[in-house]
Structures are given as structure tokens and as C-alpha cells.
Amino acid sequence: MPFITSPLRRWRITALLLLILSAIVVTQVTAQQDSTVSDIVDFNPADIDAAWQDWQTRYVSADGAGDAPRVRVYGGVSPNSTVSEGQAYGMLMAAIFDDQTMFDGLWLFAADHLDRNGLMDWHIGRGGNALGTGGATDGDVDMALALVIACEKAQDGRWDSSENGLDYCQTATTLINAIWEHEIDKPGNQPAAGLNDNQGYELIPGDLFNLEADFPNGLVNLSYFSPAHFRVFAQFTDNPEWDEVISRQYDLADAAEQIPGNCSSLVPNWSTYDGQVQEVPWHGATSAYFGWDGGRYAWRVALDNFWYGDERADASLNKIGGFFASVGIGNVRSQYRLNGTRVDNYPTPYFLSMATAAIWGASDPIASDCGDARGTLLTTPQQAYDTIANLGHENYYNDSWRLLTMMLLTGYFQNPLADAETPVTPSPSTPEPTDPTPIPTDSVTSTTVPTNAPTSTQASNNPPVSGCDVNVSLQSEWNAGYTAQVNIRNRASTPISGWTLSLDLAPNVTLSNAWNVETSSQSGTVLIVGAGQNHYNGVIPARGVVSFGFQVSHSGSYSVPIVLNINGTSCSGTVINPPTAQPTSVQPTTIPVQPTTQPNTPVLPATTTPVAPVVTVGCTVTFSFSNTWNTGYTASVLVRNDGTTPIRDWSLNFNLGSDVTVSNSWGSGFQTQSGSIVTMRSTGNHYNAVIQPGQQIQLGFNASHNGNFSQPTGFALNSQTC
């Protein structure tokens, strides 16, 4: 789909229309009249319906919600509790999909847990107790918009009067006014949560903050900034000062764009009232990233452009959407620094969806060469939508934002205060067949698509190595390239601090990029990669392992890489998964499960030193605490196959200790817990289902506890102790 702005019409999707179009057809409708975004994408209504049915089945429950018809959304901090943002997502979806019964039940649960200011406590345990008090502004504004949608539907007869006696219009007004009173920092000393000497109209993250004492430079989360919502609130409550809030937050986004080194125009998770990065204790250094919080800015501003065609929204999206279109949707990974380089090396539905919203929301995207961007636009809105539409279930946060983004790009999100006109009946269209010819990285690529790779060669001032193994494992192949994982094992009793590895790639093979290294370059056929001792992957523990990967292109014929040396010393080397006789013609599309440090999760930097691995005949498990806080921790588990044959369809068991519960996990197909025993398992086609000889895979999990915890014990892989 071209990056153009076409004449646009207002329309509404009715429940009847969805039923008629639930047959497998592909539809195209157009955006709202004032919009400057690209056209509504081609889509199959059955995909939207299936995602909605799956979402409500997985996350909406009457269990622990109280008297009927109350229901709650589980997920966020843990699968056994509710956060206000999730309750709000459910209300928005129920309102748009015309499930009035569910909508009433979700609001009644929220209303049972309002704080003294009339805003929902942000974190509610299974038993109904408040685990986190005070409102979270993102959840509050989404709930308020959902109530406005319900009000309009009840007023124009699309909904009957509430069977539970709810006055949607009055409730919406009350909630919007509470947000205005307690979560908008007016000039001067009101409200109590804000600063006493501020410019005014900044968006406070919640009503019970004490910015004067805790964040004297102010604290703003730009992913809570919802300009389309605020324009609706201004009209609904006849309060034009909401326009001041919109203008002020766009000013802060502009200021964030001017942060030194920000060539991407992305916004950080947390900002000061001057638009600079504000580090918060629950996010630490990741406060500066376009991360699990900040990413939502793209979606919320795209909604503003869709509903209102705002010039500032469009200008911001043209840069952010241009950045991600220049990265290519198939190369988008999780969390970005403002310099345009990725933080994590795995894709997630959430970040793919935020990139998709930005690409779609831009009327005239600007090609970017910042960080991972390639200087030319690689992805259209249609290609981006097709990518997320084809993703499967992950977890609450990823699934929520995938569905909300699909709803946005397909026109399900309509302005509740726009003039109603006759619904447009979309014309079915036949989808164009997918070209099986592999296209360079503007389509979803292999499981691990690399991060930025500096081209300079690291100076080899690193110490000599007294004993090492290097194993190269080909992860995926296609007719013009492959990706590989490399494990470097230090057999010595002392760490290797800083390393440089040389591999011979053979003629006609060219490095595309590499990940989990500090430097990479190619001289002739020789690939040289390395990491200094201050790099996160630069120290190989005594008898420990580090891993990195790379992607290459070739002319169609190639031989396996040859291990030359590390720090000038020859290492024993093996190649696992040698080239197949008939490489596949299309790059693989497996997307791994990811760690889920979600917004509102108080994760503090850890000080625990990783535990040295204990080698057995068949496997090695290295456990370390990645992050710890007073009621939980994030853990990393590295599992290595030390045998000579692949380990397939594996199951890892370990003892977590008493009163410790896994809240979510990643890297395995599924995870269960019985008492203190945790089982993580991967089988079948899961991307981690086979551990090749010498290969190391990474798993992880978040756990909650009552304040007492210890390192897990008894690791066993397929019943063999590691």
C-alpha cells in the first residue's frame, strides 16, 4: 500500500456488518474525514473477531471479581492480579465490540476499587486487596474514553439502558473531571500530586504521586499522553483547557526529540517537565529507552492523527513511522535506545504493533538512517499490518496491544463524538498472493535478526586464552543467506576479560550484521567480532559460556565457517547444523517468546553475581538473578547441551523454594508450577524445542515472593540432573 493520503469518509462498523463479513473475505474501508493517516488497511474481519474472542477467553474472568455481573482482566504484574490499564483495555474492547454485559461487569469491578479521588487503584490482588494504591493515568483515561463510547451508544439507541442501573454519561463525566482535578498538574500548587512551581498542564502519572518530594524536576510518561482522548474529553465536558494539556505534552515530545543523540525521534519511558530523561527506581537505566512504557506513544498519537488529523501528531509520526519503516518491520526488535539501536534481540507483538501504528499513522514518512534504520523506506502500512495479523498468542500485554493496533488500522476505533453517518458497506477484495521469493529484510526474517554492528575492528589488546571451545550452529538457511549462533566456552579456571574471535566465512559470503557483540568487521573472507571487558558480553566466566550471532548473505553456494582463533589463540571448533542440501527459499518467520517486564512492574537493578555453572555429563544450567525487588525477582536460566546428540522435546524441572511463585516466563513453549516445582518445556515446532550439541539456550522468568527467597535448586533436563 503506498504512503499516500486519499480522500476519506467517516463510517461506523456495526455488529450486523461484522456478522455478515465474518465469512472469509478481505475488506477495505476508509479512515475518518479529518484524518491524514494512510487508508484503512485490507483485512479479514474474521481475524479481528478471532483475536477478540481469544483475548476475552484468556484474560477476562468472573473469578475473584465479586458479585455478578462483575468481571476482571487478569494480567500485567502477574497472571493472578489485575492492573487498571488491563481493566481499561477490556472496557474499550467491550464497548467497541458491543458487549454491554461485559462492559458493565468490567466497570463495576473497577468502581469497587476506587481510591479517595474516584480513580481505580492501579493493582488489585486476586482476593480484591489493593496491591498498589492510587490511579495510573493511562488506565484512567482509557476507562473514561470507554465510558464516553458507552454513553454515546446508549444515547443513540445502539445500547439499551444498563441492566445494572449505570448512567454511562454521568459516570464518564465524573471520571473525566477526577482525572482533570488530580492528574493534570495545573500552574501553581494544584493538585497535591504535582509540583508547586511549574509551567502547567503536565500529565502526572497518577493521583497519589508526590512529585515535589520525589521528582522535583517533574515526571511525565509520554505513553500516557492520549491527545485524541483529551479532545473528546474537552468536547464532552465543555472544558477547553484540555487543549492546553495536549499542547504541553506535544511540547515535551518535541523536547525529547532534542535530547543529545536522539536521531530516531523516539520518546523515552520517563521524562522530566523539561522533556529530558528522568530515571525512576522501578525502571532504572531503562527509563531512557523507547520501551515497554514509551512505545505506546506511537499508538496514541496515531489515534490522534486518525481522528483529528493533527499537524503535530502527523509531524511526530512522519519521523517515528519513517524510522521504523526504514528499519523494516521484519527487523523490529524489543526496546530501542534513542540513538536508534535496539536493546533486545527478539521481536515481540507489542513492539511490532507500536512500530506498525507509527508506520500506518504517518502521512509522509521520512526515511531514516539512524541506528538500525537503513536510509530507505522498506515497509508499507499494509505489510506492517499483515505482519502483526499473522502473529499468535503471547501474553496479556502483547496480546492486548496487538489487538488494539489491529482495531485501529482496520477502522474499528471510531471517534464516539464524530457525526454519525450511514455505515459504509466495504467491498470484498481478493488478497494478492504472497510472493515466495525472499525479499531482503523488509519482511519478517529469521528468529534472531541482529542489532547494530559497528564496522570497526576491536583492537586485540585482550589477554591470551589458555583453553576454549567455539561452536557455530547454523540456525536458519535460505537460498541467499543464513543466520548462525556462536557459543564460546572458556575452559580455564579464570575469566576471559575482553575477547576477539576470528572466523573464516569462505568466499562469496558477506556479513550482513551481528548481535550480542561490541564490534564486527570483515576482511576478505575473515569475520572478526569482539567485545571489550566493559561490554555486557565481554567477560567469559571461568568455565562459562557467552553467545552471539550473525547473519550473512551469499551467492547460493557456501561452506561452513572455520574457527581460526580467539585473542590470537587457536580454539577447538565445531559446526552444528551444516548446510542443508536444499536450503529453503524463504527466510523463516518464527518469533520467540520474550521476557515481560511490563509497565507498572517495579524492577530494580540487581546486585547478585551470577552463579557459576556446574558441568555434568549431559547438560549445564547457569542461573542468575537479573533483577530483584522487595517482593519478587527476574531470573535468567542458561541451558547448555554438553552431550554429542541433540536434545529434542525437552523438559526442565527445578525447585523454586517455598512461597515463591512464577508469574510469567519466556524462552519455553509453556511453563507450569506444582508446589515449589517448576517445569519449563518446549516441544514440536517451538523455536527452542531442539538444543543442539554445544548449543546454549536462554530461558527466563519473573517470580513473586513474600520477602524470603533463595536460589532455585535441583535443575534437571529430561530427568537428568544438570
Largest sheet: 5 strands, mixed
What would the principal axes of the Cα set say about the shape?
globular
Number of beta strands: 29
Strand content: 15-25%
Mean pLDDT: 81
Strand order of the biggest β-sheet: 12-16-9-8-18
What is Rg?
26 Å
**Alpha-carbon distance between the two ends:** 52 Å
Percent of residues in helices: 10-25%
Structural class: alpha+beta
Low-pLDDT residue spans = 1-33, 420-460, 574-616
Q: How many separate helices?
A: 14
What does the secondary structure layout of this molecule look like, with pairings?
Layout (H helix, E strand, L loop, with lengths): L14 H6 L24 H15 E2 L10 E2 L7 E3 H13 L3 H12 L11 E3 L4 E3 L4 H19 L12 H16 E2 L16 E2 L7 H4 L12 H11 L4 H16 L38 H13 L2 H17 L21 H13 L19 H9 L6 H14 L58 E11 L2 E10 L5 E2 L1 E6 L4 E7 L3 E5 L2 E6 L7 E2 L4 E10 L7 E5 L5 E5 L42 E11 L2 E10 L5 E2 L1 E6 L4 E7 L3 E5 L2 E6 L7 E2 L4 E10 L7 E5 L2 E2 L1
Parallel strand pairs: 8-18
Antiparallel strand pairs: 1-2, 3-4, 4-5, 6-7, 8-9, 9-16, 10-15, 11-14, 11-17, 12-16, 13-14, 19-20, 20-27, 21-26, 22-25, 22-28, 23-27, 24-25, 28-29
